[in-house]
């Protein structure tokens, strides 16, 4: 029966076995209970050293270390985003201006054009546009379409590292002077290690200021009907009367006086008159000194 497989129906109990005791696993050594590995099986039979039950090391098939120590946390790599997806719809906005000469004009010699310079981080392109002013008299709008601006004759193009407040930028023969930028642009440049200069005020255009002054509607103020002659006719001999006192008796040689305050409505003037006092009111506030 030793060659039979260990399957139901092929295993039989030994009917000749007389000992069914199990070897003890707990023994005392120096007065302390310790665990002892079994040296014999049931009834003193030798152990099946090839069995999984008596292996000193756990079976790698049936033993899962994660049940004891937990599963290890694996780092999940972040999803890759290409450059055009990461910087999509993100732009750097600057305020700039350029001067245009006006020849053969007795009223002006140059004009100042304010423009919006936009740098697209998606593909490193630049667009320059002038805000539209009603009845300006000259074409406005997009001056430089969205494209890469050549920086020099070596084939280099303008990069966002080249843009800052107070920097001159040349495009299509026109020199633009950058004056300021918005809050997000300043924070982005500073996060990239660029020291952003202070904002500069945009210069005013003398031609635009002159047109505003010429087109300003003049307002006229109608004089009030309540003039001096009208007040004389309506409020003549009409007076507001008030009575007041001057009480200075707390000080040495102080007096108590009554006054009449008159306000003339005809010409908005005041008059203060001192009123005579009665006998009791004229009494001295202090007693005579007795020798």
Q: How is this structure best described in words?
A:
The chain has 5 helices and 11 strands. It is of the alpha+beta class and 291 residues long. The protein folds into 3 domains: 1-66, no CATH class; 84-211, PH-domain like; 228-275, no CATH class. The strands form 3 sheets. It has a 6-stranded antiparallel β-sheet with strand order 6-5-4-3-8-7. A 3-stranded antiparallel β-sheet has the order 9-10-11, with no helix packed on it. The chain is elongated and about 150 Å long. Mean pLDDT is 82; it is low at 286-291.
Q: Shape from CA axes? A: elongated
Q: Mind telling me which CATH architecture of the largest domain this is?
A: Roll
Cα distance, first to last residue?
157 Å
Tell me the fraction of residues in β-strands, as a range: 25-35%
- Report the major sheet: 6 strands, antiparallel
Helix content: 10-25%
Number of domains: 3
| CATH top-level class of the largest domain | Mainly Beta
Residue stretches low in confidence (pLDDT < 50, at least 5 long) are 286-291
- Residue-averaged pLDDT: 82
Organism: Lygus hesperus
InterPro entries: DM10_dom, EFHC1/EFHC2/EFHB
Keywords: Cell projection, Cytoplasm, Cytoskeleton, Repeat
Subcellular location: Cytoplasm, Cytoskeleton, Cilium axoneme
Give a summary of the structure in a few sentences:
By secondary structure, this protein is of the alpha+beta class.
Keywords:
single chain; 291 residues; alpha+beta; PH-domain like; 3 domains; six-stranded antiparallel beta sheet; three-stranded antiparallel beta sheet
């Amino acid at each position: 029966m030793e060659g039979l497989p260990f399957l139901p129906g092929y295993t039989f109990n030994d009917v000749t076995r007389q000992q069914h005791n199990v070897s003890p696993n707990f023994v005392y050594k120096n007065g302390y209970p310790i665990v002892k590995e079994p040296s014999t099986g049931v009834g003193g039979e030798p152990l099946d050293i090839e069995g999984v039950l008596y292996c000193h090391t756990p079976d790698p098939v049936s033993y899962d270390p994660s049940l004891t120590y937990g599963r290890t946390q694996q780092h999940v790599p972040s999803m890759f985003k290409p450059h055009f997806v990461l910087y999509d719809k993100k732009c750097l906005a600057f305020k700039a201006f350029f001067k245009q000469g006006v020849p053969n004009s007795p009223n002006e010699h140059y004009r100042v054009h304010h423009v919006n310079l936009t740098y697209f981080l998606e593909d490193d392109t630049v667009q320059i546009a002038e805000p539209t002013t009603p009845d300006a008299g000259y074409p406005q709008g997009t001056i430089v379409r969205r494209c890469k601006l050549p920086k020099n004759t070596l084939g280099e193009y303008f990069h966002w590292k080249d843009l800052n407040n107070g920097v001159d930028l040349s495009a299509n023969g026109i020199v633009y002077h950058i004056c300021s930028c918005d809050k997000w642009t300043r924070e982005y440049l500073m996060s990239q290690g660029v020291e952003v200069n202070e904002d500069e005020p945009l210069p005013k255009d003398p031609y635009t200021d002159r047109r505003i002054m010429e087109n300003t509607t003049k307002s006229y103020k109608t004089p009030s009907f309540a003039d001096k002659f009208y007040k004389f006719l309506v409020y003549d001999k009409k007076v507001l009367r008030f009575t007041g006192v001057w009480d200075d008796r707390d000080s040495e040689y102080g007096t108590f006086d009554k006054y009449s305050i008159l306000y003339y409505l005809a010409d908005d003037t005041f008059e203060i008159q001192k009123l005579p006092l009665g006998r009791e009111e004229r009494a001295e506030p202090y007693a005579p000194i007795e020798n």
